[in-house]
Amino acid sequence: MLFPTSGVRMNSAMDDMNLIQQTQRHHLVVREIGEEIDLEIGAGEDDPSFGSTTLIGAPMRESSVEEHGESKQMGMISQLPNDAQDMSKTQQGKRKKKVVKRWREEWADTYKWAYVDVKDGTPRIFCSVCREYGRKHRRNPYGNEGSRNMQMSALEEHNNSLLHKEALRLQMASKDKIVVDKPVYVKGSILEATLKRDPHEVEFIQAVQEAVQALERVIAKNSRYINIMERLLEPERMIVFRVSWVDDRGGTCVNRGFRVQFNQSMGPCRGGIRFHPSMNLSVAKFLGFEQTLKNALSPYKLGGAAGGSDFDPKGKSDNEIMRFCQSFMSEMYRYLGPDKDLPSEEMGVGTREMGYLFGQYRRLAGHFQGSFTGPRIFWSGSSLRPEATGYGLVFFAQLMLADMNKELKGLRCAVSGSGKIAMHVLEKLIAYGALPISVSDSRGYLVDEDGFDYMKISFLRDIKAQQRSLRDYSKTYARSKYYDEAKPWSERCDVAFACTSQNEIDQSDAINLVNSGCRILVEGSNMPCTPEAVQILRKASVLIAPAMAAGAGGVVAGELELNHECSLMHWSPEDFESKLQEAMKQTYQRAMKAATDFGYQKESPEALVHGAVISAFLTIAQAMTDQGSI
User: Fold this and answer.
1) Could you state, in order of their start, the residue ranges of all structural domains in the chain?
2) pLDDT tens digits, residue range 334-350?
3) How far apart are CA 589 and CA 568, in angstroms?
4) What does the alpha-carbon distance between residue 92 and residue 427 come to, in Å, rounded to a whole number?
5) Going by C-beta distance under 8 Å and a sequence separation of 6 or more, which residues neighbour residue 42?
6) Which of 161, 353, 509, 525 has a CB 3.0–4.6 Å from the CB of 505, allowing a cystine?
7) pLDDT tens for each residue of 211-231
8) In angstroms, what CA-CA distances link 259 with 26, 274, 355, 465?
């Protein structure tokens, strides 16, 4: 379903078709443009009385009239040059009707059921319920701007048509299927350019869509931000390279490596390295974009980057992982450095992998110049670096609850994932007196109705270290149960922590979360919700703590780790937690202030999400403006 937007111009019919097809592929809803589309209409295909109505807003030289409507149109025709009048009368065969989609904002609901598609090579406007167009609805209700009464009359006639009623009846008869709009908002040429340049980068396009939606009020207030956003969306540097390594059998394996240094206007890049089979350039760009905003929102002014490889460390020996990491760093080292870019842990990359990577970097660079964030504490700085992201998520949730005059103590918390972030979330939830009840892996999820304690968490870590299934936990604790091919979002909970990967919560999961009583969702991974899930959660007034704000703990710890003062002394856990809590508080306050500055109510489910993006973007935009067009 497509709404008209403003300011988009197509160079050719093929451009129209390509953009429409891409828009459908990504489920876009387009708003507020003044695009004009030529609809080829055969003789008699429309109701003549409707087709003869004046097209308000269409260029005068494009206007045409039918003989039977001349009496109604005489005022308009008299304004046309004689040549134009003669041309309009001599049109034969197929005629073109210029459909002007510069509709008024208050009439948007009139056409919320319309979308654009291509029929026989021509863009046409369809009904989203019936999937039909033109005379099949007895008259063409999509025609022109006309008067409000004419618009409403056309809509009423459309809704009363037998074809539409039957389609609507069939749609409503499906009780199990919840029909949800898929809103993605296009402002001017921002997303259009991204779609045309990288139409297949689904993850990156989704991240851009969410950011553009959050920035609607900012862009409406100052149009110069459109150009800055367009520049921001093109990474400063994208590195793609081959990684050849030798396995334990002596065979040569080949993987692909990525590093996207997205934006350095705020400072040197910081960002994770992910080793996972799903890793590709789209994922690297999406992670780099999210990291750029996250770093800008944090108290430390840093650029953003991300990268990794489609290498899968699961099932590999230590020697195989070491050889891969050394080969990966042999290409990457020339782009890294404390004043350029320092990587950190991400999915599939832990202290072991970071140690191998840093060792090869030090060897090739020829000096011990700082350290990557994440290696072991006996040769790195901070003592709680691995815990920082997980602890930060819980601190952020506590800040949200404090604004509601509530606390975590006694609340049931559902957690997805069983990696380092999820485990540290469990630890800190227990410390706050909450009741964490679930963890998950790629094959299902485990729920313990009695909740986890420190001893149970230690047992879970042993299971994961031995690469065993979480199912083995239920053999020891009778009150627990493991569910295959399922997610924990149907379990009754007050707060949920999503700590696995992007798009882990889809439409049905969001419905389960709402039905299970969840009031707060904390994003521990980047972009864990699909657009459909976000819409459902917002309609149910579920508050969302965005990853770029709630996940800033890793950024804070990394900078403390690289701080000169930190390298000369060993932080105690208490000192480190105190600094982390203060940094998370500053991040929360910045996001809420930006939201309220642009008219979002503090209790609105959109406030934190949009406020975080707005605050981060304005910070980056100011730096990019000061540094000129580079």
Assistant:
1) 103-176, 235-375, 387-608
2) 999 888 998 988 999 98
3) 31
4) 77
5) 94
6) 509
7) 999 999 999 898 889 889 999
8) 25, 10, 18, 29
